[in-house]
Write a structure and sequence with these properties.
With 336 residues, this protein is of the alpha/beta class. The protein has helices spanning 40-50, 83-90, 100-107, 169-182, 193-205, 213-221, 224-234, 238-262, 279-282, 286-292, 298-302, 314-327; strands at 3-9, 13-20, 28-33, 58-63, 71-73, 80-82, 94-99, 116-120, 131-136, 140-148, 151-157, 268-271, 306-309. 38% of the residues lie in helices and 22% in strands. Strand 5 (71-73) and strand 6 form a beta hairpin. The longest helix has 25 residues, at 238-262. It is globular, with a radius of gyration of 20 Å.
């Protein structure tokens, strides 16, 4: 029996799994805090030692950054991942590197009903229509899926780095606030974990609201963005509620912009590490309101299905599918 290694490597967490070539369920799966390690090699080494030196025939690693070759610099980590180095170090015959949202796209076809939460049903989906995958986590990922030669092909992108386009006076103030800090302000500067923290800081520094001692203690004790999301949903902390609502509104507008570009009648899949954790807020209506708020094209956007991916392992599943096909020598292109 052949065993494969799959990885979903993000700015916050690195998730690894070992599975048999012909099985979906993992033999071993672990999550590691990315910034606690000097590089990916050290994490893989620790993981494989826990796996009792299981021989790996093929590997696919999904990386949060543009993948242009065999050596990739991650966007939100000071790591360079070298496929050939990993293959040699761990005696793996085939090591593939793909973009993290390419991995999400690869997994869409394998999703089960329980893996999705529908925000907007849209109209009846036509077969083989374009699909859009987008998601905020440490960064902001985007990928398109188009039907080609009997299969879906995944087209990764860096769409999260498009210029932020404010839609009201508050958002214009937010833009100016962030321009002083960064110069160029992309959507990822706002629609991401660090972006939620930046929104909170804008609201605080502009005098719109101040945090309670409870929120400040929570932000010091755990990830600041997670504390803000928790404070909004569990404690109804005013500044946290304002920050999360503004985040959700800008998120929805961004996805609506992408939908106008791609017309994804096959569905929009909102993945990433944040959407599932704030699903109750996403369901309250502001996300879809902002998504549809495109003037004469509001009616068109209402026809597009929009789902939240609630399966946290979707990136791993996509990487696993690539590794399985690599090991089986089933084609060189990434087709579903």
């Amino acid at each position: 029996m052949h065993y494969i290694l799959s990885g979903d490597i993000g700015g916050t967490q690195t998730r690894l799994r070992i599975s048999a070539t012909d099985q979906r369920e993992p033999l071993l799966q672990k999550t590691f805090p990315s910034n606690h390690y000097p590089g990916l090699v050290e994490i893989i080494d620790e993981f494989l030692r826990q796996a009792n030196s299981t021989a790996i025939a093929a590997a696919c690693l999904a990386l949060a950054g543009p993948v242009l070759g065999r050596r990739v610099q991650l966007t939100n980590l000071p790591w360079a991942v070298d496929a050939d180095q990993i293959a040699k170090r761990f005696n793996i015959s085939r090591v593939s590197l793909i973009n993290d949202f390419e991995a999400v796209g690869m997994a869409i076809e394998a999703m089960q009903p329980q893996d999705l939460l529908t925000l907007q049903p849209g109209t009846a989906q036509q077969e083989n229509e374009t699909r859009l995958v987008v998601g905020a986590g440490t960064g902001l990922g985007v990928a398109l899926l188009t039907w080609q030669q009997g299969n879906y092909s995944v087209h990764p992108s860096e769409g999260g780095h498009m210029d932020f386009a404010p839609s009201d006076a508050t958002q214009y103030e937010l833009l100016h606030y962030l321009q002083k800090r960064y110069g160029h302000v992309s959507y990822e500067r706002i629609v991401s974990g660090p972006g939620l923290l930046a929104i909170y800081e804008f609201l605080r520094d502009s005098g719109r609201a101040l945090p309670s001692e409870k929120l400040l203690k929570a932000m010091a004790a755990i990830d600041a963005a997670a504390a803000i999301a928790q404070g909004a949903q569990q404690d109804q902390e005013p500044i946290a509620v304002m920050a999360l609502n503004l985040f959700v509104s800008i998120y929805g507008a961004f996805v609506g912009n992408l939908a106008l570009v791609s017309l994804p009648h096959g569905g929009i899949y909102v993945a990433g590490g944040i959407a599932a954790k704030i699903a109750p807020v996403m369901q309250q209506g502001e996300f879809i309101r902002a998504f549809r708020d495109k003037g004469r094209f509001a009616g068109l956007l209402q026809t597009l299905p929009v789902h939240i991916v609630v399966n946290p392992d979707i990136g791993l599943l996509g990487a696993q599918r690539v590794a399985q096909r690599t090991d089986s020598n089933m084609g060189q292109e990434l087709h579903l």
